[in-house]
Amino acid sequence: MTVADHQAVEKLLFFWHGHWATSVAKVRSPQLMLGQLRTFREARDFADLAHRMVHDRALVYWLDGQHNKKAAPNENLARELFELFMLGVGHYTERDVKEAGRALAGWRVILDRESLISDPQHRDTGRKTILGTTANFEANSLVDLLLQQPTCRRFIASRLWFRYGSSTQPIPERTREAMAAAFPAPLEMLRVLFSDEAFQETRGTMVQQPVEWLVGAMRHLGIRPVSMPEQVFTRVYWAMEALGQRPFAPPSVGGWPAGAAWLTSAAAQVRLTIAGMLVDLVRPGPITPEAVAHLLCIDRWSNRTYSVLRDARDDRLKLMLGLVSPEYLVS
Amino acid sequence: MDALTRRRFLISSGVVGGGALAAGAGVLGFHELLRTAEKAKAGDVEDGLPTLVLVTLYGGNDGLNTVIPYTEPAYHSARPELAYAPERVLRLDEKLGLNPMLRGMKRLWDAKQAAIVLGVGYPKPDRSHFKSMDIWQTASPGTPAPTGWVGRWLDGTKAATEAAVSFEPALPPMLVGKSRIGACVSYRGLTLPPGVSIDAVSALGRAEPGESEMQARAATSYADLITMSRVVRPASTGPEVQGHTVGDMVPATGTGGDNALSAQLALVARCVESQVPTRVYSASLGGFDTHAGERVWQEALLRQLDDALSAFVDRMGRTEAGRRVTVVVYSEFGRRVRANASDGTDHGTAGPVFVLGHSVAGGFYGEQPSLTNLDDGDLKATTDFRDVFGTAVAHVLAGDPDRYLGGYRARLLPLLTSR
Q1: What are the domain boundaries of chain B?
Q2: pLDDT greater than 70 at residue B127
Q3: What is the C-alpha to C-alpha distance for residues A320 and A312, in angstroms, rounded to an integer?
């Protein structure tokens, strides 16, 4: 199945990038961002990933972890650990956030050091009560505590559903529980999702994110970014910004939006431009609407799109309109 | 941007937190928006309510070279290279005159359709673009606020999605409330790649019976693109829409705002004339961060601004709905009194706010700040911006300003004629 394919791993990395959404706009260090990407790739499963992420220099810097000191706590990282990364809204109290902030105090990011630096002077080694458990929590034991919460596995299942299944329909309880049973292995969880009946029913509801659309288009056309002329590459890069999804620069720690947010008329304009640039790189030979569908892995065109492609003046245009067609944007 | 807290980051990106983040809340197609007019006419929505159009000038417009104290020696001595000679300004009275580029504005002034509020700012001015813009848009100078002042009005009136609309690329923080957000109907002009016809794009925008909702929305985005370009075309100068290539879609100064103000206002005009039940529109023009070679740059921007605003106000005079429209034009700060070494000016404080429309009582409001009694080289604000926004809430939106300005009690200005 798809998950056995190498591409499934790449898509999952992009999922984690949106999940632990960290932006170079604040981090300002390509090395740190690259380190985070490597962590996504190297982590065995979600449990391993979560442990690594609380020590990830880019994430810690992004969420002001280096300002979190015993004497002057900053709870930014702790809050997002609960709200966006591991449990979801409503499964913890403000007091839990405060106490977890204490558990994460005393780390510093130093650019020329390979890893996060622990500063004993600013650590808080006292007892904390988090989610009803009292202990001398520090980063790793805090993550272990969160991983044990049944809400954690359910939350990760629902986030995967949001990006792979449907961003508009909530995950059915049965699907969620089946996926949660495969926690913490993300590809296993996805395998469960892909064979679920509810997943089949989400057909035609998932809007491709701009990066997914671009990557898909390049793969289908056989274009490799390295072989792009530099000028085209730069224009495509800034077009991604205009589409609202520049890699390594999510708009907020909440990650990128989903669904209809990508379907604005402004985006329609930009997509047409990008599609034109891509098609000009391949200069297609004679092609029919059916062949365009085959190339782009589309089951069948709507009557609308079929007639648009049939009437298109030349082959270049056929391929371009195929790339921007509603059928190609929504899967 | 390091001090940007997360919540503010969320809203400044046009994306709101929590539930609204899902499913692209706040995105509305142009066709959908126009259809709300029909629904409003069919339903019992109150007819003909006044409309507010907020125009944000991103980057910090130099107020002293916009409304010019042309007789003041201090003006000429502080910025000899940048100052306008008295004979060039468009005189409003014996002390103040408009930048020579603002001819349309002068005409509106003479017709008593332009009010100018002088020396508008807030206590303890912040000279960061992002922070100061945030302060204006959230109406919260003391502490960061998670919502914009229009957003709070949307919350307070339990407004429908179409009550506040932005034609900018991203939703401005101003329109973000706790439970409601304004709609973003973004449009960046129409430039089609070579060989692609408008007909082909329109055809791609046709609905197909039985297709999924998202696929239909994807199709509509193409239909909207073409419709919006048709609406905008008559208002723009060239035969084609003021097109942007993808390369220049990113504002040059990086301080936000969009360069096709006339295109945005043409869309507003169409909606007003169609009697779409939107109460607040947001539009913007960027690029006012004139640190170097200011004169040429600011003149080009002011001309764009003047063309867009005067054409819009004239057009609004032709319909009953249009005559109930009030335009408020502001920037996050003015610039320093003294020019810098590169014939530009650095970030400053107070500046003028323009209020335009056929319901406006034209003239000056407030007091021109002194050029000699300065606060560390900057103008001292004489009017709080919340008095202007508060007046807009009270007299255009018929709301209680005390509810939406974070505890500030606005002193209302008689900016509008009583009708």
Answers
A1: 24-188+255-403, 192-243
A2: yes
A3: 10
